[in-house]
Amino acid sequence: MSTRPRLDPAVLKLAGILVLGAVAPLLDSTIVSIALHTLGRDLNAPTATVQWVSTAYLLALASVVPVSAWAAERYGARRVWLGSLGLFLVGSVLCGLAWNIGSLVVFRVVQGVGGGMLLPVLQTLVMRAAGGRNLGRLMAVITLPALLGPILGPVLGGLIVGHLSWRSIFYVNLPLGLLALALAHRGVPKDNPRPGHRLDVTGLLLLSPGLAVLVYGLTETGVARAAAVPLGAVLVAAFAAHALRSTRPLVDLRLFRDRAFSTASVLMFLNGLALYGGMFLLPLYYQQERGESVVAAGLLLAPQGLGSLLSRATGPLTDRIGPRPVALGGMLLSALGTFPFALPHPTAALLPVALVVRGLGMSAANLAVNVGAYRHLSPDRLPHASAAVRIVQQLGGSFGTAVLAAVLAHGGFSSAFAWSTAFTILAALVGLRLPIGVASAGAHP
User: pTM of whole model > 0.90?
Assistant: First the structure.
């Protein structure tokens, strides 16, 4: 029997360098969320104002993701990745030097603009280098920081806030980021930019504000949500109508005509809901329901990170048997690991085990769904696919947090975790539409 080709060491090296640069931006939002109370106290800012430290970052991030596909083609993916990481690090330094809440919010926008394009451009660079081969094993590498960020961020944030100045939550980005920049200058190969590639200005004016307004509405409540969500939805819908008529849209929505990509995108939305909804619920559960401190709550979430690390073994499995069975199994494990938190009085010994199972299932499902999204795409479609995937995940996370926050307010933690479990089971049903089988190396329609 023939064996599958080994992972190309050059591709693995490239993935490692790019992932190193993505760690800090993906940890950043969860680290900062733990520090909001401290920031408000030290900068003499009310809660409503200090919340913009997180909101401004998320809005900037959502606004620039759609531009990543055009920028990667116009200037070259390598150049855009290096520039984005450099801008993120500059923003981190400025945040650490902020003298009041207003300056901190402005500098968070700088950070968000830099961080927003890193992940989609990372995926474009790695997928191009891989040429459609061994995607499961590659996804096990490049999805790791995206999964560990929401899980380990609260742990690291709690330790920093508990023992150091709040400024350290921004300076902690520098060592890894600078090392990644140095390695990338030598280890990321140059690609060919297309100077004549025009920007879809109409699409930009519709999609970027639409996503920002939609994400803002989902993070707010009351009148702000009632006004922002419909406006954002209208702008995004207008972009969709424009993109389907345009020959060179900002994000090519024709990708969704491919069954594998469209199914994977729906699953990415639902996975984003489960991941970021859980990130919102779990620290609150340990602090409010079980009376733990901020630092203890962060440490108690560590078993979920262990589960995510264990899921890396499913990368080669996905290459051998295809994404559908791995995705379905992962979603069912995630539901199984979430359900104990919906019980009225779960035992303390049960919860760490449940978190390991949840982390394993959620991460395995996310890995397999990413393989399902990319494995049939030709190289020229990768920048648009990477942007679309990131947008869908961002909206899923914002929607999930909004829905579960509303359920929590009216029904408590048991109801919120029951809803989260139900969403995960729904994702498993959608996952039945993923194609069966293993793609041949480099295959695409």
Answer: no
